[in-house]
Each structure stands twice: as structure tokens, then as C-alpha cells.
TrEMBL record:
Pfam families: CN_hydrolase (PF00795), Vanin_C (PF19018). Keywords: Glycoprotein, Hydrolase, Signal. Belongs to the carbon-nitrogen hydrolase superfamily. BTD/VNN family. PROSITE patterns: CN_HYDROLASE. One of its GO terms (molecular function) is pantetheine hydrolase activity. This is VNN2 protein. SUPFAM superfamilies: Carbon-nitrogen hydrolase.
Length: 497
């Protein structure tokens, strides 16, 4: 006699739990998805047309989920906007939205799809998780009705939220997160009234979740790690790469190292929007990552990660980011400084005129110290030491402190700070530090071709970012990216939503 379907699912789920419990590691997957986009329109399409488009994307995601399962993955993260894209007005996105309940309702959409109204997307995602016995993380849109009793209720009578959902291996909804820090242009969505610190427990650690632009702010990103003590962060994103400091793989890897937590980053793939780059990032560096501007194809990544990184023997110690820099005097010497722009941020730069040397550059309360030695001082390449201490952003203003060893676009100093993807100069050594006024500093090293440098640099307890044995590839930048959250200006849009 064959077991009934519910018993079979329960048995598979129990086996999955036991397998995960047997180890202090787990296998994680992320999928960089080339989203099939709808035709741009200001007018809403029919619900059937919206679902047809979403099913096309879910067909692709389901293939990735099945492949990840076959390779032993316990959890898979898919990208922000991965099911319907991002080209919407408030009205035109409405047919793509579903009512997403709070996980406390104990709901498996796969077996009870109509409990909270039509939910074909949640039903299908739930079944993907259930049929493959894997945690599935996806990004969809939530709609919540409101009325005049709520003074903040939008004029169309509903809130619309950019939302992450997580389904466990039984297909049960175990997490729902409404994106708190909307990126400019996300006018189709509302800001939640309060930040949500969403966590859930698994057999392989405590997980938190947030979305894309959230990673640059204190709430909920820092709260999840510093206060909620999550082991792993799930991070659906639609990240547009911005050199020199904010390419996806560069900053997301640096954030995982700076916060000393696992980060599972799943990006969309759209070259025309400079969207590519995802990875499985750990406190020690990237376990694996992907950056591809040459094709239009998606990519599945898997890696085995520590379930409880704080208990790992390789877990990095806490860093006092200003200890070394505040203990030494400013380096004397050729400190002719000049101003240059990284996008709209005014940096103070000093040109590295020799093959080796010691430099100090200051701006505001921040002084950056660099000791370096190039393999060869090339006449056709210029590097600078740069410092920035100020507010970044034209509308949403948030405070950065940055120390950077940076390649200029050309030998013309006016090009210093402009995007550069390739370089020729390798460094025998570098040591970068700064008098940071924050504990939240993210160490970045980016090589020519927008490649990371796993295992080739270290952060000392006194705040120095140092190469270990020289750079194996030419260097674009080595950067300490600091965030002084308490100096951020009040958000100009959140109260008006």
C-alpha cells in the first residue's frame, strides 16, 4: 500500500529536517533571473494577462528550484521584481498584486489556495517549495485595503507593498516582509508605517530578510544582525551596479564581512539596466559569486555555508575600525590634495606619485591613511587616495565616511572618481585605515573586470584593510565604506505616504 500524499510530504519534510540537523552547515542557492518584462503601459492589464506574464517567469524560477533541489540545496533565494519586473505605475501594477496574510495564520497555499481570496502566485510558489522540499524565497506585491478611518489611507483605498515571502519545505508561509526603504522611482508602492524586523527559525539557523535598498540603512538591516542576532540574511534585490563602490558583488560581499553574517544575495539580470551580480557571501568572504555583463542568461549558484557562523572557528573577531588610524600621526610628504567627484559626492584626493609611499588625506572628521607599494608605477595609470565624510544622495540623504585607494579613469586628474572597470597595475602591498566615527564599516577590494579578491586581503582588529601577499590581479579599488546612520537626515517621503 502506497502512503497517502500528506504522509509522503510529512516524511520527506522530516527527512529534510533530520539531514539539516545532522550538520552545522547547509547548502544555499541563489538564482540571478533574466526577468521577462511586461509591455510598458500606464493602464492596468487584465488579471489573466498579468498572471500569464507571472507564470512565464515562475516557469523559469521553477526550473532553477528543481535544479537546486537536485544539487542538495536546502533554501533558494530568487530576485526582487523577479516575477513581474519593475516598469509600473501605481495603477498598472495592481493586477499583479495579491493579498498576502501574516505568517501567524499557519497557511499552506498549495493545499488551501483560496483561504484568503485569489492567490495563484502564492499557491504556485508554495507548491514549488512543497514539491521540492526546499525553502523558497520570492518577491511579489501585497495589497491591503484601507478606508477613511485611516488618515494615511491612499486615495485609491489600498496600500501596496513591495513584499518578500518565504515558504518552508511543506509549502507553509513562514515569513512576509514589506520593503521599508523604497528606491527612488518605486512610486507603485507605499512605505510601511514602521520597519519590520522579520526573522524565522530553521533547522540550520536563524534567518532574517530584507530587500535591495534596505541594505544601505540601519532599519531593518542592522537591527536584524546586531539586535535580532540572525545567522543568515536573505536578500532579494534588483541592483543596478554603480562603480566604484556600489557594484552588487562588491558591496554585498563587503556588507556580509562588515556585519559578520551570511548574506544570500539574488539579483535580477538585465544588462541594459546594469543589473547583474549575485552571490553567497559569508563573514570570511564570498563562498561563490557571479558577475556577467556579456550574456542575457540567468545563473544558479550554490554553496555550502556555516549554519551558525558565530560558532565557526574561522569567524572573524570584532574590529575597532579607528584604533590604528587614531594611534598614528598623519603621514608627512607629498600631500597636495585636490577635489574630485564620485558621482555627486565631493571627495578629497591625493595622487600616488611614486611606486611606493605613505599618504594621509583628510575630510571633515575623517582622516585616511595609506601605506602601499605598486609592482610597477605605470605612466598610463593614476591612482589616488581619497576621503569623503558627508551626506550622500539628492533626495534621500544619508551619511557616508569613505577611505579609498582608487584608480582614475585616465591620467587626467579630473577623471578621478569616474567609473573604471579595468586596470593594469598590481600592488605588492597596501594597508588602508581611517579615523571612522562608526562601527559600521564595510571592506571592499575590487579587481580589474569587476572581480572580487577572496582570501587575498584581511581586516585586522585595529581597523586596517591589508593585502595578504600582494594582488593577484590589477586593482580598481580598495575601500573602507563607512555608514554613520545617526547622521542621516529625516526621510523626505516616508511621512507623506
Amino acid at each position: 500500500m502506497l502512503p497517502s500524499q500528506p504522509l509522503l510530504h510529512a516524511g520527506i519534510f522530516a527527512l529534510t529536517v533530520l539531514q539539516a540537523l545532522a550538520s552545522d552547515t547547509f547548502i544555499a542557492a541563489v538564482y540571478e533571473h533574466a526577468v521577462i518584462l511586461p509591455e510598458p503601459t500606464d493602464k492596468p492589464v487584465s488579471p489573466d494577462d498579468a498572471l500569464a506574464l507571472m507564470n512565464k517567469n515562475m516557469d523559469v524560477l521553477e526550473g532553477a528550484i528543481k535544479e537546486a533541489t537536485q544539487q542538495g540545496a536546502h533554501i533558494i533565494v530568487t530576485p526582487e521584481d523577479g516575477i513581474y519586473g519593475w516598469k509600473f505605475t501605481r495603477e498598472s501594477i495592481y493586477p499583479y498584486l495579491e493579498n498576502i496574510p501574516a505568517p501567524v495564520v499557519n497557511w499552506i497555499p498549495c493545499t488551501d489556495p483560496s483561504r484568503f481570496g485569489p492567490a495563484p502566485v502564492q499557491e504556485r510558489l508554495s507548491c514549488m517549495a512543497r514539491n521540492n522540499s526546499i525553502y523558497v524565497v520570492a518577491n511579489i506585491g501585497d495589497k491591503k485595503p484601507c478606508n477613511s478611518s485611516d488618515p494615511d489611507c491612499p486615495s485609491d483605498g489600498r496600500y501596496q507593498y513591495n513584499t518578500n515571502v518565504v515558504f518552508d519545505p511543506e509549502g507553509k508561509l513562514v515569513a512576509r516582509y514589506h520593503k521599508y526603504n523604497l528606491f527612488r522611482g518605486e512610486t507603485q508602492f507605499n512605505y510601511p508605517k514602521e520597519p519590520e524586523a522579520v526573522t524565522f527559525e530553521t533547522p540550520f539557523g536563524k534567518f532574517g530578510i530584507f530587500t535591495c535598498f534596505d541594505i544601505l540603512f540601519h532599519e531593518p538591516a542592522v537591527v536584524l544582525v546586531s539586535e535580532m542576532q540572525v545567522d543568515t540574511v536573505l536578500f532579494p534585490t534588483a541592483w543596478m551596479n554603480v562603480l566604484p563602490f556600489l557594484t552588487a558583488v562588491e558591496f554585498h560581499s563587503a556588507w556580509a564581512m562588515g556585519m559578520r553574517v551570511n548574506l544570500l544575495s539574488a539579483n535580477t539580470h538585465n544588462i541594459s539596466f546594469a543589473m547583474t551580480g549575485d552571490g553567497l557571501f559569508t563573514p570570511e568572504g564570498p563562498a561563490t559569486y557571479h558577475y556577467d555583463t556579456g550574456t542575457d542568461e540567468g545563473r544558479l549558484l550554490l554553496a555550502e555555508l556555516s549554519a551558525y557562523p558565530r560558532l565557526s572557528p574561522t569567524y572573524p573577531p570584532a574590529v575597532n575600525w579607528s584604533l590604528y588610524a587614531t594611534s598614528i600621526k598623519k603621514f608627512p610628504g607629498e600631500n597636495d590634495t585636490f577635489s574630485g567627484s564620485v558621482r555627486k559626492d565631493k571627495f578629497t584626493f591625493s595622487e600616488l606619485k611614486r611606486k611606493a609611499g605613505n599618504y594621509t588625506v583628510c575630510q571633515g572628521d575623517l582622516c585616511c591613511h595609506l601605506i602601499y607599494q605598486m609592482s610597477i608605477k605605470r605612466k598610463n595609470e593614476v591612482y589616488v587616495l581619497g576621503a569623503f565624510d558627508g551626506l550622500h544622495g539628492s533626495l534621500i540623504k544619508y551619511h557616508w565616511q569613505i577611505c579609498t585607494l582608487l584608480k582614475c579613469k585616465s591620467t587626467d586628474l579630473d577623471t578621478c572618481g569616474q567609473p573604471v572597470e579595468t586596470a593594469q597595475t598590481k600592488f605588492e602591498m597596501f594597508s588602508l585605515s581611517g579615523t571612522f566615527g562608526t562601527n559600521y564599516v564595510f571592506p571592499e577590494v575590487l579587481y580589474s573586470g569587476v572581480q572580487l579578491a577572496p582570501g587575498e586581503f584581511e581586516v585586522l582588529c585595529d581597523g586596517r584593510l591589508k593585502s595578504k601577499h600582494g594582488t593577484s590581479k590589477p586593482l580598481i579599488t580598495a575601500t573602507l565604506f563607512g555608514r554613520v546612520y545617526e547622521k542621516d537626515l529625516p526621510h523626505p517621503l516616508r511621512t507623506s505616504q
